[in-house]
Each structure stands twice: as C-alpha cells, then as structure tokens.
Amino acid sequence: MSEPKFKRVLLKLSGEALMGDDQFGINRSTIIRMTEEIAEIAKIGVELAIVIGGGNIFRGVAPGAQGMDRATADYMGMMATVMNSLALQDALKHHGVESRVQSALNLDQVVEPYIRLKSLHYLDEKRTVIFAGGTGNPFFTTDTAAALRGAEIGAEVVLKATKVDGIYSSDPNKDPNATLYHKISFDECISRRLEVMDATAFALCRDQKLPIQVFSINKPGALKRVIMGEQEGTLVHI
Ligand SMILES: Nc1ncnc2c1ncn2[C@@H]1O[C@H](COP(=O)(O)OP(=O)(O)O)[C@@H](O)[C@H]1O
Ligand SMILES: O=c1ccn([C@@H]2O[C@H](COP(=O)(O)OP(=O)(O)O)[C@@H](O)[C@H]2O)c(=O)[nH]1
After folding, report:
1. What is the C-alpha separation between 216 and 234, in angstroms, rounded?
2. What region holds the Aspartate/glutamate/uridylate kinase domain (predicted)?
3. How far is CA 92 from CA 31, 73, 163, 188, 200, in A?
4. How much is the ipTM here?
5. Model confidence over 183-200: pLDDT tens digits?
6. Ligand 1 pocket, 214 CB below 6 A?
7. Is 211 annotated to bind ligand?
8. Is 135 annotated as a binding residue?
9. Distance CA 147, CA 67 (A)
10. pLDDT in tens, 93-136
11. Closest CA to 190 of 198, 182, 180
12. CATH class name, domain 8-236
C-alpha cells in the first residue's frame, strides 16, 4: 500500500459546512460523514490537528451581529467554535478516534487550555488535537487560527476543507464563468483578493512557507486523496 504524503497536518473544517443542508447548527449526518473520513486518515497514522470554524452557529460579521460591538460578536463566534469542537470530539470518539480539545479561550470546566508543548505531546502519541476558540482574539478568523497553529505544531500543510472544490478566479458561487486553479501562489491569492481565505491567513502561511491545500468537504474521499498526494482541489504555494 502507498504511504501518506504527509506525516503531520493541520485540517481546517469550515463551520458552515457542518450545517449540511440545514439553515444553522450541526447536521448529524454531515458530521458523521466528515468524521468517517477523518477517522480513516487518523487510522493510517497521520498526525492530525484540527481547527474548526463557528460560522454555522455565530459569525462576528453576520447580519445577526449587526449593531453589536464587533469584538463582543467575535467572542461569541469564538465560543461557537468551542461548541463545534466538542461536537466533533464526540463524533470522532464514536469512530474510534481519541482526541483532545485545547481552547485559546479559558473555559476550565469544559476544555483544557491551549498549551503548545502539550499539544505536541498528544500529536507525538498519535492523538488527534482539536484547537478551539480560534486565535483567542477578535478581528481574526479560524482560517488565521489554522495558519497559526499549523505553523506552531510544525505541520507540513494546512488542509482547508470547505464548501467549494478549490480556489477559483472569482467566487464560484457568484460567477458562473469562474475557473478553477490547480496551483496558485500566495502572492497571487493576496493580490487578486481571492476571498476563499483571508489575507492574514495567506500572509502567515506564506511567511512560514507553509503550503495550503483547498478542497471540498462534500466530495467523498477528497481528504484521503489529498493525504495520499493525489491531485485534488488547489495547492497554494510560495
Ligand atoms: N476565488 C474564490 N475561490 C473559491 N471560493 C471563493 C472565492 N472567493 C470567495 N469564495 C467563497 O469562499 C467560501 C469558502 O470560504 P470558507 O471560509 O470555507 O467558508 P466558511 O466561511 O464557511 O468557512 C466559498 O463558499 C466561496 O463562496
Ligand atoms: O481567531 C478568531 C476566530 C474566530 N473568531 C470569530 O468566530 C467566528 C467564526 O469563525 P469563522 O468565521 O472563521 O468560522 P467558519 O468560517 O469556518 O465557519 C468569526 O466570524 C469571528 O467572529 C474570532 O473573532 N477570532
């Protein structure tokens, strides 16, 4: 059997993708399907850290947060990521994957705090680590949290699992003529203002020479294909 391309990865799961076809919240069959795919790669020995978004529950820049103080809304968004992290941990457990949740926000009764050396220890022991609470700071996103934690743990790649199957020349949900890139540089993503990830996340990964692979969370087997080094989605390179 062929070997996985990567030994340690940071997987970013879109919060909104957890909704499935629902209007908000966590869709049961969607989270089960996602965890089946994650369990498959955890079981072949890939060291896996996960950052999950919160947009399915609360987003600081959403219409629902209009009129609210932005920082307050962002703290609500960060707390939403903690809820998603606990749901993911529970679902992973049902698929035989032991994981630990570490949060950038202190919620002592619920999750352990983020301690870098402890997370490295878990990864060495092949336990999946879920990073909750984003970066712990308002005005940031969980994409930036993924770039930050990915760099901190020495991941070889950030895998962005999202609703679209890669990076397009413009938003494919708005422009039917948008074309898919198989490869694109960080500088091109930033200068063309491709909004699949925010510029802070792109810049951090570029400076740390940490590639990003963008692929669809809804495409069966896509995560495994990325892990095995097969062509899937878009690679963002230096
Ligand atoms: N150039 C682009 N290529 C691909 N997707 C894009 C682009 N510009 C904007 N998008 C949008 O980015 C979204 C993916 O962002 P993502 O952060 O994963 O979603 P979420 O906000 O739920 O986490 C897609 O749903 C797509 O509509
Ligand atoms: O470091 C962070 C990460 C997240 N958030 C807040 O949490 C929300 C949910 O995160 P995100 O939008 O990145 O989730 P996703 O797009 O993956 O669903 C954001 O809108 C922000 O309000 C934040 O303030 N700081």
Report:
1. 10
2. 7-216
3. 9, 29, 21, 36, 30
4. 0.92
5. 999 999 999 999 999 999
6. no
7. no
8. yes
9. 30
10. 999 999 999 999 999 999 999 999 999 999 999 999 999 999 99
11. 198
12. alpha beta
